[in-house]
Design brief:
Blueprint (H helix, E strand, L loop, with lengths): L2 E6 L3 H10 L5 E5 L4 H10 L4 E5 H4 L3 H9 L6 E6 L4 H10 L3 E4 L4 H27 L14 H13 L6 E4 L6 H10 L8 E5 L5 H9 L16 H4 L4 E5 L6 H13 L1 E2 L8 E2 L3 E6 L3 H6 L5 H7 L2 E4 L10 H16 L5 E2 L1 H9 L5 H15 L4 E2 L6 H4 L10 H6 L15 H23 L4 H8 L3 H10 L13
Parallel strand pairs: 1-2, 1-3, 3-4, 4-5, 6-11, 6-12, 7-8, 8-11, 13-14
Antiparallel strand pairs: 9-10
Helix pairs in contact: 11-13, 14-16, 19-20, 20-21
Length: 482
């Protein structure tokens, strides 16, 4: 994490002495006039983590000045340096709200060690704050252990790449657990002591996404009343997880590529570059190679992100894992919800194994949580499961076009698909399926985009883009009650 320090000290010799002592790689130092008004003005323009103030700046108005600092949107911690080692002054300053009073007469080593300890405390506090806002648990790669050969091969690769510092690209369908895997890799890698920040690239408008990632200066755009750090600065020494990377606009892809190549960021409205030390893990449920060929994703960024590509198998391709996963989540929800539910009967378990799980593990979690809440006994039965599972395909019925072809029922496929190269045929299949799927979801939700997006498991912005691609208008579904 990059720490920003503001110096408001006098005389000049003291400022130079502090600069010499504060040569940590992740501390950015800025100086301002050693007077109350310039100090408060500077703090109002840009956030910082720590302020070092000469006692003379406070001039017995410490309560007013420190109270004003405390009212800032992101109040920094305040260290006061004093030429007098006076116990009464120290007590008064600490009571007013500063965290440390440092006598300028101490040796350089003592002063340097004291400041380093304060800085580390600030880093830890910020890390905990980020983790709390993001609801971060501590997943481990051992959470992904399974009986499936496909999943075992995948986890073996994940174990090998976790200790590295290379960029990762995680692919897989919606709901397979891409963010959870990224958190586990971070937790078991060399950056586990640093922050993990997850950003959904499809959930924010372009301007806001750029500001969130790279930060902005005061006045960079309407409403930017003070400078703000972006997630890359805040995750210095840790990991940034870029979910739905395929949704990132092209001009931001250029800035991301610069970060990956040069390890530095440039805030909106700034000409300065800030060095950052961040591991980037990206994820998508899109076919990024197809996006590259269509000109919607930069080829150089694709190869830079995909130094290592981890593809999580969908749940339907590892059905042997369903019983153990289901039982594990029963145990978790039993504890968190407080219901005396401990098992799943054989019929219900077989229904779950037979189901195709289009929403993958995320859907399984929701189903188990619902069943634990509704179950009237200590065992989940078939009638505790939603109808989408109990009335779904049986194990002997085809679950896909591929299965239909294998069973000789391929007449539903347009003949012209078989005249195309496999890549073009695949694109045609995906496009036809997506359009048909979106039409049906929009019919069921009567054109309500938010509800349709939630049902489809994607962000509203992503749904709007797909609707534009397939020339679908929400107004056309408003009166449709199919």
């Amino acid at each position: 994490m990059l720490l920003r320090l503001l110096l408001a000290v006098e005389p000049k010799a003291l400022q130079q002495r502090l600069r010499r002592l504060l040569k940590e790689d992740d501390v950015i130092i800025k100086a301002c006039s050693a007077a109350a008004d310039p100090l408060l003005h500077e703090l109002g323009r840009e956030s910082c983590d720590l302020v070092i103030i000469s006692q003379s700046v406070l001039d017995h108005s410490e309560q007013d000045i420190l109270a004003a600092i405390e009212t800032l949107p992101e109040p920094p911690e305040v260290i006061v340096v004093s030429e007098q080692d006076d116990a009464d002054d120290r007590a008064r300053l600490l009571a007013a709200g500063c965290i440390f009073v440092l006598h300028t007469g101490v040796a350089n080593k003592v002063m340097g060690d004291a400041l380093s300890a304060v800085f580390q405390r600030r880093r830890n506090a910020i890390d905990q704050s980020i983790a709390s806002r993001r609801g971060m648990g501590i997943p481990q790669l051992s959470d992904f252990v399974s009986d499936s050969s496909a999943m075992q091969a995948f986890i073996n690769v994940a174990h090998r790449v976790a200790p590295s510092d290379s960029s990762l690209l995680i692919t897989g369908e919606t709901g397979v657990g891409k963010e959870r895997l990224a958190r586990a890799i971070h937790a078991e890698g060399p950056r586990s002591g640093g922050p993990f920040i997850a950003v959904n690239c499809g959930a924010l408008p372009e301007t806001l996404l750029e500001s969130e990632l790279f930060g902005h200066e005061e006045g960079a755009f309407t409403g930017a009343s003070r400078a703000r750090r972006g997630w890359f600065e805040l995750s210095h020494g840790g990991t940034v997880f870029l979910d739905e990377i395929g949704e990132m606009p092209l001009h931001l892809q250029v800035k991301l590529l610069h970060v990956l190549q040069n390890h530095e960021v440039q805030r909106l409205g700034s000409e300065r570059l800030t060095a950052v030390d961040v591991r980037v893990i990206a994820a998508t449920n899109r076919d990024l190679l197809h996006e590259v060929e269509e000109g919607r994703f930069r080829r150089d960024l694709y190869y830079r992100l995909g130094v290592i590509n981890l593809s999580i198998p969908p749940l339907r391709e590892r059905r042997e894992d369903i019983p153990a996963l289901a039982q594990d989540y029963v145990s978790r929800f039993r504890a968190s919800i407080g219901r005396n539910v401990s098992s799943i009967d054989e019929d219900a378990l077989q229904e779950m194994v037979n189901y195709s799980w289009p929403g993958n593990v995320r859907e399984l979690i929701n189903v188990i949580e619902r069943a634990v809440l509704l179950c009237d006994s200590d065992t989940i039965a078939t009638n505790d499961l939603p109808e989408t599972i109990t009335l779904g395909h049986s194990s002997g019925e085809p679950r896909s076009h591929a299965a239909a072809l294998a069973s000789g029922k391929g007449s539903q496929f347009p003949v012209e698909w078989f005249d195309l190269p496999i890549r073009e045929a695949r694109q045609a299949v995906v496009a036809d399926f997506e359009k048909a799927y979106l039409i049906r979801v929009l019919q069921l939700t009567r054109g309500h985009v938010g509800e349709a997006a939630e049902r489809a498991g994607i962000e509203p912005r992503s749904l709007f883009e797909k609707m534009r691609r397939y020339d679908l208008r929400k107004e056309d579904f408003r009166s449709n009650r199919s």
